[in-house]
Amino acid sequence: MTIHKAVIPAAGLGTRFLPATKSTPKEMLPVVDKPAIQYVVEEAVTAGLDDVLLITGRSKRTLADHFDAVPELEAALEAKGDTERLAKVRESTELANVHFVRQGQPRGLGHAVLQAKHHVGQEPFAVLLGDDLIDERDELLTTMLALQERVGGSVIALLEVPPEQISSYGCAAVEALEGEQEDTVRVTGLVEKPPVEEAPSNLAIIGRYVLHPAVFEVLESTAPGRGGEIQLTDALATLMDLPPEQGGGVTGVVFRGRRYDTGDRLDYLKAVVKIAVDRPDLGPDFKAWLTDYAARL
Predict the structure, then answer these.
(1) Which of 50, 71, 103, 181 shows the smallest number of beta carbons within 10 Å?
(2) Average pLDDT by stretches of 10, the chain with 297 residues
(3) What positions belong to coiled-coil segments (predicted)?
């Protein structure tokens, strides 16, 4: 079965970016000249996922508006002959079949994923978190999709981080996966935000998953964990121990490409700078200015 559905949780309150997120969803904050959420949807579409479900919450109507047509604006741009901007406006509308469902209460990532149950049905599906932007030049999601189709179960993305930072992430214990490449591993243990001295590795779980639909039944019986929320990591730990015929087993892909974290204010600023520097239309002038500015600090 070819995987073609993506789920993007986008119901968080975005409190780290207040007051900017008081009325604007954090997913709509611009990264250069596109909202962060559009980069994520584009990544899903590039990987062949043409059915995208956004899990939203209150005050997130602008997310739906962004992926909808804007006839008045389009007519105005067309009348002016501004075909370049018209194409950019229409790009988000024509990206994919985008659907929306509300989470209600923000009760954790696991609870957000559970809201996709009726839309996804009994198919494997991808989950992409909007805080993690993966550079379009680096392959990750397509590798994960292909791995799930080969071995079944669920697949998570892993990233090596400095050991002192592992307590900010879900953490995985792993072993080699026979017959697969070095950066493809079998997950043998999962723990959410462990103390540094108790972490089984420095492999952090980042925001890309390809999940077997068995995750929904597990999530329905997963008790609130760390922070009083239903943690997806806890559900994956249960799936890890289930037999393959029940959708069990978790594998991981260790990502060594470029990842931009937009969930923290400082990292968000770094992401904007890195992406802008690499843009052919902005990069040369921006890099020259940035170099001169940095030299004067």
Answers:
(1) 71
(2) 90 87 90 95 95 89 90 93 92 91 85 94 95 92 95 95 91 88 91 89 95 95 80 92 91 94 91 95 96 94
(3) none
